[in-house]
Amino acid sequence: MKERRVRVRFAPSPTGPLHMGGVRTALYNYLFAKKHNGDFLLRIEDTDQTRYVSGAEEYIVDALNWCQMSIDEGASVGGENGPYRQSERKPMYKQYADQLIESGSAYYAFDTPEELTEMRERMKAAGVSSPQYNAITRSGMKNSLTLPAEEVQRRLLANEKHVIRIKMPRNEDVKFEDIIRGWVSVNTNNIDDKVLFKSDGMPTYHLANVVDDYLMNISHVIRGEEWLPSAPLHVLLYQSLGWAEQMPQFAHLPLILKPDGNGKLSKRDGDRLGFPVFPTNWTNPETGEESSGYRERGYYPEAFNNMLAFLGWNPGTTQELFSMQELVEAFSLDRVGKAGAKFDFDKTNWFNQQYLRMQSGEQLAPQLKPFLASAQLEAEDSYIAQVCELMKERATFVQDILKEGRYFFEAPTSYDEKTIKKKWKEQTPEVIKELRDLLAALPSFDAESIGACFKAFLEAKGLGFGAVMPGFRVSVTGLGAGASMNDIAALLGKEEVLNRIDIALKTIKK
Ligand code: GLU
User: Fold this and answer.
1) Nearest-atom index, ligand 1, CA of 213
2) Quick one: what percent of the chain has pLDDT higher than 90?
């Protein structure tokens, strides 16, 4: 049999910003597609117009772009199987609902909201905890299975409000093999007669999703676990529409769990524990509420992707750092687990640190420049690059280099009080002055010479490291700790270092 071309889709509903879990779904789809030289589609599922949020689609496209997932076909880029926005596909769905009616797999239902409520209340009173419109209750309702054919025709011709429901078969086991979960079997007695087509002329998610996956020739449906309960209905729809042969394979991804305790990771966990749950900043257009995103917090998309990839998948080796290309090569759905994956924010920071360290000072310098500019600081590119090279080991975000190393760009305006209190002794000014004069005499002001000079000074004076270094450091940087003073001094240059010591000796008062 000819191998089917791999075509997968990410199918978000534009009801708000994309949660991290959604980005992970997109990523797994993307990795799977690229691994198999297939296509990655973006389909916007906006059949529920009441939940539509303006700006959400643009947000989704922007977030996927930031995460470097290029879209082969989709709402933002077009393609042969478009349109890729379900609202624009509206005229396509009705014929399939009609086909289901004709074959007896679906029926018209004319019940008013009041009648539906009445039915539920009646069932509840009879002891049914979650009443459903199903094989048992449908016989007491107003639908094309209970009303005479002429009345159904009359109601339809009169344009009476109605929906189309699936006629769920009684007591049948629907089985399918999920790539991640293995065989799944659900008895139809547990599924209700879901609405497929609404009174507003729009299909529901279920019908539109199946029709589009079929028309777009989707080979694999990779989506979150929350859709697993819908899968048996989708399988039945494929069968009823005569598309069983073309049915995609399903893979339902595990949940992303909160870092503490159990349960699905939510925006509230992020607010509570101080981390973003969205890839990029989002402003709610209705309330104006702002939510922070990984991008604006200074995370690299590579680090974000790498972290997300590990939430549910593992490569089976000890390797943790993967470029997108390496992820594509290593990824397989076989190595995605069933169990929920706990989100670990520290690990996210660790990934960012690693991606920062991988870059050279020259690569980091242009990233630091905007932060310098907003602090009204400036320096030559090559100098900034050297500062970045020296400081990158201490940073998680590029802006940390400025936070930790502001003294590279301006002389200290204050001196760390704790250091002064503990280490600035009576004789310190004299010792530092002597060190200053030795440094001033150095013919070459490189880190090695400064180190050697410092060491010789300690030996000659019979002083310990702790008696001189803190005073030296606080004079030059204003701080009590940091990178190697030899490197710092060499980078600042002789004139600057001597100047700073002179000012410190005048300023620091015990
Ligand atoms: N529109 C659904 C969602 O918002 C898509 C689910 C699926 O992939 O089938 O997640």
Assistant:
1) 9
2) 98
Q: How far is CA 322 from CA 119, 201, 207, 219, 253, in A?
A: 55, 47, 38, 26, 20
CA of 19 to the centre of ligand 1 (A): 13
Q: What are the tens digits of pLDDT across the range 300-336?
A: 999 999 999 999 999 999 999 999 999 999 999 999 9
- Expressed in angstroms and rounded, the spacing between residue 108 Cα and the centre of ligand 1 is 26
Expressed in angstroms and rounded, the spacing between residue 133 Cα and the centre of ligand 1 is 23
pTM, two decimal places: 0.94
Query: Best mutation site among 29, 30, 32, 205 for ligand 1, i.e. most ligand atoms within 8 A of its Cβ?
Result: 205
Are 475 and 504 a contacting pair, CB within 8 Å? yes
Calculate the alpha carbon distances from 356 to 103, 305, 368, 389, 392 in Å.
60, 14, 12, 10, 7
Q: Residue 45 CA: which ligand 1 atom is closest?
A: 1
Number of neighbouring beta carbons within 10 Å of residue 477? 26
CB 203 within 8 A of CB 184: no
Whether 48 is in the pocket of ligand 1, judged by its Cβ within 6 Å, is: no
pLDDT in tens, 123-136: 999 999 999 999 99
Q: What is the 3-state secondary structure (H, E, C) of 26-46?
A: HHHHHHHHHHCCCEEEECECC
What's the CA gap between 364 and 234, in Å, rounded?
A: 49
Segment 34-43 mean pLDDT: 98
| Catalytic positions, written as ranges | 267
pLDDT of residue 1: 60
